[in-house]
Design brief:
CATH superfamily of the largest domain: Ribonuclease III domain
Strand order of the largest sheet: 1-2-3
Keywords: Cytoplasm, Endonuclease, Hydrolase, Magnesium, Metal-binding, mRNA processing, Nuclease, RNA-binding, rRNA processing, rRNA-binding, tRNA processing
Oligomer: single chain
Number of domains: 2
Helix content: 55-70%
Enzyme class: hydrolase
Largest sheet: 3 strands, antiparallel
Shape: globular
GO biological process, one term: tRNA processing
Cofactor: Mg(2+)
CATH class of the largest domain: Mainly Alpha
EC number: 3.1.26.3
Length: about 220
């Protein structure tokens, strides 16, 4: 019995969590894909990680906690968890997806980890998910805290990529004041919609502030 199987009582849920939509399309819907489980697992993962870092860092402000959470649930980090659990070798993929390197696709692997968490929640409940996440996902939280967190624009870029949205676009929508002391207002647009805006003494500062506001908006959804 492998690591993943040992976590589950209902093996059918694990099989579904490992089933990519390409396999379902190729096998004419013989089995449900892992997309719904991924949706559930994403919510469970965010709840557990949010609660864990809230508890561990009582003196940190919201912006710091948001940045730390993003660094723990991003594609790169979740793909690393997939490697620890040997997820890639156990995926059910179509021949086409297999041929294009699906078993090493970080985005696909990260999505599958979320699906596994969703399946585990249905099978064993929240406590089992907490145990899995603490053991495999936030074991290096101390190192994460020591490492400078990414700037807001980089984190926002990563977040929208994870959610398969169009890249953020930053626009200066207002500039006031004399040339030597201007204030710029920058708006960040995602998928054609204005998400947030902020002002700063230069365009770079305003863009970073707008990205931070956008992060707060998107992670509340």
């Amino acid at each position: 019995m492998n690591q993943l199987q040992s976590l589950f009582s209902n093996n059918n849920l694990l099989v579904q969590a490992l089933t990519h939509k390409s396999w379902v399309n190729e096998h004419k819907g013989q089995r449900e894909s892992n997309e719904r489980l991924e949706f559930l697992g994403d919510a469970v993962l965010e709840l557990i990680v949010s609660a864990e870092i809230y508890r561990r860092f009582p003196d940190k402000p919201e912006g710091y906690l948001t940045a730390l959470r993003a660094s723990l649930v991003n594609t790169q980090h979740l793909a690393g968890v997939a490697a620890k659990l040997d997820v890639g070798e156990r995926l059910f993929l179509s021949k086409g997806e297999e041929a294009t390197g699906g078993r090493r696709n970080k985005s696909l692997l990260a999505d599958t980890v979320e699906a596994i968490i969703g399946a585990l929640y249905l099978d064993q409940g929240l406590e089992a998910c907490k145990k899995l996440i603490r053991e495999y996902l936030i074991t290096d939280i101390a190192e994460k805290v020591k490492t400078p967190l990414k700037d807001a624009k980089s984190m926002l870029q990563e977040l929208v990529q994870n959610r398969r949205l169009k890249a953020p676009i930053y626009k200066v929508i207002k500039s006031i004041g004399p040339d030597h002391a201007k204030t710029f207002t920058v708006e960040v647009e995602i998928d054609g919609k204005a998400v947030a805006s902020a002002a700063g003494t230069n365009k770079a500062e305003a863009s970073q502030k707008a990205a931070k506001m956008a992060l707060l908006q998107l992670t509340k959804k």
